[in-house]
Fold this sequence. Notes:
The structure holds 3 protein chains of 3 kinds.
Chain A: H1 4-16, E1 23-28, E2 35-40, H2 60-72, E3 81-85, H3 87-98, E4 107-112, H4 122-128, E5 134-140, E6 143-148, E7 151-156, H5 157-160, H6 163-166, E8 178-180, H7 194-200, H8 204-217, H9 223-227, H10 251-255, H11 267-281, H12 290-294, H13 301-316
Helix pairs in contact in A: 8-11
Chain B: E1 6-11, H1 23-31, E2 36-42, H2 48-60, E3 65-70, H3 73-86, E4 94-98, H4 100-104, H5 110-128, E5 137-140, E6 144-148, H6 152-163, E7 167-171, E8 186-187, E9 192-193, H7 194-207, E10 211-214, E11 217-225, E12 228-235, H8 250-254, E13 258-260, E14 269-271, E15 273-274, E16 286-287, H9 302-306, E17 319-325, E18 327-330, E19 334-336, E20 353-355, H10 356-363, E21 384-391, H11 407-421, E22 426-431, H12 441-450, E23 455-458, E24 461-466, E25 472-478, E26 483-489, E27 491-496, E28 498-500, H13 504-511, E29 538-540, H14 550-567, E30 572-575, E31 580-582, H15 592-596, E32 602-605, E33 608-611, H16 621-625, E34 631-633, H17 638-648
Chain C: H1 3-6, E1 11-16, H2 20-29, E2 38-43, H3 51-59, E3 64-69, H4 80-98, E4 105-109, H5 115-129
Parallel strand pairs in C: 1-2, 1-3, 3-4
Amino acid sequence: MINIQDIRDTAKDLLAKGEVRGVIGWKAGTRGMDAEPVVITAPEQADELVWDPTCYHNLALYLVEDRKFLAHARKNADKPIGIVAKGCDARAIVVLMQENYFKREDVYIIGVSCENTGVVAEHKLARQLSGFAASAAAFAGDEFSFTTAKGEKKVPAREVMADRCLECRNPFPKEHNATLGEDKTGRTLAAPFAALAKFEAQGGGERWDFWERQFDRCIRCFACRSVCPMCYCDECVVDSIEMKVLPDTTAEEKANRIRWIERSADRSENITYHMTRAMHLAGRCVDCGECERVCPVNIPLRLLNNKMEREARERFGYEPGASIGGPSLVASFRDDDPGDFIR
Amino acid sequence: MTKKRTGVFVCHCGTNIAATVDVSRLAKEMANEETVAFSKDYVYMCSDPGQNSVIDAIKENNLDSVVVTCCSPNLHEKTFRDNAIRAGISGFTCEIANIREQCAWVHKDRGEATAKAIKISRSAIRRVARNKSLDPIAVPVTRRVMVIGGGIAGIQASLDIANAGLEVILVEKLATIGGHMLQLSETFPTLDCSQCILSPKMVEVSRHPKIKLMTYSEVQEVTGAVGNFRVKVLQKPTFVDAEACKLCDECTVVCPVVVPNEHDLGLTSRRAIHIPFAQAIPASYTLDESACLGLNPIRCGKCKDVCEAGAINYDMRPQTVVEDVGAIVVATGFDLYPQEKILEYGAGNVEDVLDGLQFERLCSASGATKGHVLRPSDQKEPKEVVFIQCVGSRDPAQHCAYCSKICCMYTAKHARLYKHHVPDGKAYVFYIDIRSGGKGYEEFVQRAMEEDETMYLRGRVSKLHRTKDGKVRVAGTDTLTGQNIEIDADMVVLALAMQPSKGTEEIAKVLKIGRDKDGFLAEAHPKLKPVESVTGGIYLCGAAQGPKDIPETVSQASAAAAKVIGLLSSDTLHHAPTVARVRSSHCTGCEMCVTACPYKAIRLENGKAVVNEVLCEGCGSCSATCLRAAIEVRNVTPLQVHEMIEACLSV
Amino acid sequence: MSEQQAYEPKIVAFLCKWCSSAGSDLAGVSRIQYPANATPITVPCSGSVSPMYILSAFKKGADGVLVSGCHIGDCHYMEGNFLARRKLHLVKELLGFIGVEENRFRMSWVSAAEGGKYAQVVKDFVEDLRPLGPQEKLKAQRT
């Protein structure tokens, strides 16, 4: 189990020595027990940092935000930035570095191990606490400890863990500058891609009925895209909210952007949006699960991305977020890539 | 942006198109398209009046782009692009809509064919509406050539190119040029002495003012593209000053190291300091560093002590030489398939079982036995020799699937030479077929059978082994009589398959040229482009491209030379401008396009992708890989394809 | 004539310039007849076909989409078809995962010498598409 003071001391130390210009981590939030992301810049602020089962956010997103902010302000980072990163967060950081979004030396990764208990899925918690809201949560070995008005309640982690954590194979941040907590890799609690296998047991008709319902509900709020660290493109191919221009962008270019989909939240446009996103994330999605968590209409988005990830792993021998120096999935190929589907 | 003014020209192609597609209706429908300012149909658009009408229409109607709906672009894209240029607009604003091969000729129903022709034409019009007026990219050219490989192919190509006035750098990895032809005794079908016909060419190469000879050298790295290659060549040290060496041979007398002689394929030995061949070009000795005891007087130093000319210099070091050339000819030749792989014939362990080149060395007057055919084991004259054809060739299950082409001929030659050397000897040839297609070849083989009384047995040899009395027992079959044959031969000669020479795989990677399924260098088209590789500016000739005999090799060498001379006949080359273009505003420098590009034409500069337009072939792999639409191929942009898709699904 | 018999599937065919389009030309030269349902778009290489093209074709109402390129190892641009094989495998899996009928998206390798094969590919595709009826799942409801 990680002692929170170790995280605070590490951050404090880095900031005091001037080795980093800030540390991205979690602090106690304003909504019940939930932690929220924070960027601290002074050593004293390190005491705000927390580490508990509500630290489900993928902080790699804030690395992207930080870089975009600097680009907008036309500043260069003079020092690396520190980040507290879980296993899933560290994988996302690896993909960002693989794509040159950061150089390795730009980021100081303070890896924290969830020790295979993962983080909590709030909707599962509702059943456990008899309707009482929790005001605090903490790691307690293989259990989570929640504080409610009725006192402290301990719940076995595996009953309230997020699904993505149950299936997680890499709970330890492999890429790191420092780590805290034990490496409990190898103790998978549920078969990876279990939900995927269950879904695929259905035939084509049932699958379509399922997705038709889902895509009809989508309101194209883009929360999934906003929360994904890998969706860092300034101009999204499927939806042009903004267009990146340089002084030499011509009027013709501005007038002639392709509209692959329309803005309306119609089913056909929604399907194209989600399928394009799944294709673009193939080999890049590390299954942090945030997209599914933030969807306001509860579309099971992880199914789409897991499908791509399973194809990448099983057909192409490709593991997303494994290697900073490796080629991307779709820019490379192997001689034995499957080709039986080709006539 | 001014409104597009596209001209549409619908060709009847006589009745080829008009019989099935309603061409006048097509022309009328296309006139309704938003960007079309002019539309007509005509019986033969590619005829003189037809082409003139296109040019006139462009000028008279101020057209800025053209769509010709006709036959396949393979036939007339160039024709109509040239017309566009003559009319004063860019050739790249002209596109062809194929409504013949892909429509009129394959459908019967007039309604369906016309509807499809309308979609195809509309698609082309939408595309052309966004075509940019591109100009071909002019690439300055280095008018020098590198030839890799100094065998007969490389020698012939070098001479032809140098005689046309171009500078040639001939790179050879051994210490002498000449290749395998130098190891031959006589050549079929004339039985000319191989060295006698080769030596004059070798000397010509050494004396030619336009040929720079780099022996004992290997190509390490090649960058650049057609017209502008930069090649790094590693020149290994020979430790002997070629100008000073007097060829007195005193050094070999005192050298204590004895190693097998590669030129004689191990049948004789040589010293660490040696000359590969008495008439080597360059005419100099070479000190083989890997065999030498040590390059300093403490270890040995005997050769240096005895050299009166003072030509030996232990301080020579490897040198990397950089050469800029406009074209490269690859003539890296062949090696024989290793005997060790033929387990049923002794795997190279049975004495007196030789390969073809070894037999040549026995026959050769400058060879292992001064021209007498003698058994390597006991130096006695063999009275019965068995020649086995197709060893390793035509064997898809275990070795090479292909036919090595020359073995029937050189086996007949070997049988004849043997008989000339040992008149009372008996030669047997085990064969499957006899392939003797060249001029004089069939007659040559018949003479082997009739005049030299060679016994030709149609059948395979299942195995051979050495007997206690020093013979080689060959167990074969004669399918024409249906009998099994056993011969206790004094010597066996195996016609081993030709395979690409050692180092072909590496040189193909360095040059980024392809290899075929058997490892030979791949030609651009098996019928019509036999001496061009798939990479612009790099040409192939000789056995490196596939098994062949000397006349074919010389033909290919001269053909490659002609291609090179044509390529470099002007100071600039024109490269198609339909290449990739980066939109820096959208590029995040993720390098996916860099990885995807088959030509390594994209690199990162200041965090953004940059395309080398000379290397780029416009394949579009980058464009399909980019997640951000930051790179696209000019005139085949995703926007254009998007509109073409829409046109294809219109009613 | 029933509704089903009157229905003609609309196919968009992306053909690579060097092999498949040339193969299609050869079918024409050989006068091999095949159904007129497939409208060809010639692209430089099968590797240049972006997944967006396929999704866009379906959204615009295509009943079937064909991508055809050079045989593996024979790509005019050396590696383009290897990249196509991988990307379009993912597209195919994703379409099937959503519940789009498997037969609607197809890939083939057709060389410049295979005119007959191209005609057969189109014939087979049209026959396989007919029983599926018009494609409604990905088609835009509003134009």
